[in-house]
Amino acid sequence: MKPKRVSQEQQSEPRAALLNLRNVEDLQWEMQQVQLGVARRAYELFETRGCEHGHDWEDWFRAESELLRPVSVSMSESDDRISVRASVFGFEESELRVSIEPRCITILGKKEVSVTESEGGKVEYIDWDPDQILKLIDLTTDVVPENSVVELQAGLLKFELPKAKVETAATAA
Predict the structure, then answer these.
(1) Is 168 among the domain residues?
(2) Rounded Cα distance, 120 and 117, in Å
(3) How many structural domains are present in the chain?
(4) HSE value, Cβ hemisphere, 13 Å, CA-based, for 131
């Protein structure tokens, strides 16, 4: 069997999409709705167990695991910048909202229901994984949000965050 030739286009990396940053205040309403959904589900779990106290953390974490897709994060730091990578595989650029504050990154995502048409009518595609992301990433150093670059490539959010300049007090000799 002869090996297949792969064209230049097929060998190149997937296209990267730059994401527009959102103001954190704009995301707070959506974040609050996700958090309320988790709280409602945790309370349902509490009621299912006969309102037995002492399992609040267990109920909360189970509710989060049922409603929110996990996001793995890696971070590296150099003298002038912080680089963050977050796995958001399965989410498109239009389904993600990101904000950056001097000490925190917020990632919010909601999968859109895709609809496919068949001969008999419309059939919805159902993804059994949780269809939402809510991830807050604390940063070790202040960054400059307005100079940050965020891109989505092949399910990976890539953040390049320039560090804020640290003002040092001049001492008189």
Answers:
(1) no
(2) 8
(3) 1
(4) 10
